[in-house]
Amino acid sequence: MTTYISLLLLVSVSFLAQAQEIISKSKIKFIDGSELHVRILENYPGKYVKIAWPDNKEVTIKYSSILSIKHKDYSYYSKYIQTKGFYLEGSTGFSFGKATERDVARIGISLGVSANYQLNSHLSVGVGIEPTAILVTNDNFLMPLYGRMKYNMLERKVTPVILIDAGWSMVLKKEEEDFRTLYYDGGWYAKPSIGIQISNFTLSLGYQLQKITTTIEGNTWWTLNGVTVEERTMKNISITGSLKF
């Protein structure tokens, strides 16, 4: 019986020692993608850390090679990791497309701003507004209000990104012609995009969809003093540059 109790105590002490060792270890993730679970002996933020290597050796690691550190008392994230919190992003873009088969071309210029929240090092969500002037054949002024999801594929200074904007867009235009008046109304709005992010700057290529309803009051070649409603979807290719600040 005494032997059994002694064996049980020995196993318990060994288990507790192993558990304590696991708790005392920190996770160090490197820029090259590798990681270590080691005990940090000394930490000099921004310079280097000293870790305990097998056989009781001490190894010094420079901060320039470290992506992140997770310690029981503190954490470190390099500037290339997106940390939790709010941020703003301003953008400017150009779009090209056709609204109808009769259009020769359409060019749009936009300026936007979005308020976002970084959920983790990869995913952020937010809301934004992007006033857009449509020039050349369709002189419209659009006001998209949208929700945004942005996904950074890598924890690197340079990373591919996926963006999805979806919401509602107003069309601010009324047009007077001979014997008739044209009213333009907006509708649903969507713009999925792919791009590349370099530090805080993102360049993306997207496919923009925008519903527009045109109400014609007055004479047309097929009606007299009538009302005609036309619905169409504008389809544009967009190129957007945005800056996080």
Structure overview:
The protein has one helix spanning 2-24; strands spanning 26-30, 35-44, 48-53, 57-62, 66-70, 75-77, 85-98, 106-118, 123-129, 132-136, 140-152, 158-171, 174-177, 180-185, 187-198, 201-218, 226-244. It has 245 residues and is mainly β. It folds into 2 domains: 2-77, SH3 type barrels (Roll), CATH 2.30.30; 85-244, Beta Barrel (Porin). A hairpin with a 4-residue loop joins strand 5 and strand 6.
Main traits of this protein?
eleven-stranded antiparallel β-sheet; rod-shaped; Porin
The biggest beta sheet, please? 11 strands, antiparallel
Please indicate the count of domains: 2
- Write the H/E string, N to C: HEEEEEEEEEEEEEEEEE
Unreliable stretches (pLDDT < 50, length at least 5) are: 11-23
- How confident is the prediction overall: mean pLDDT? 80
Question: Using DSSP, what is the number of strands?
Answer: 17
* Rg, alpha carbons: 29 Å
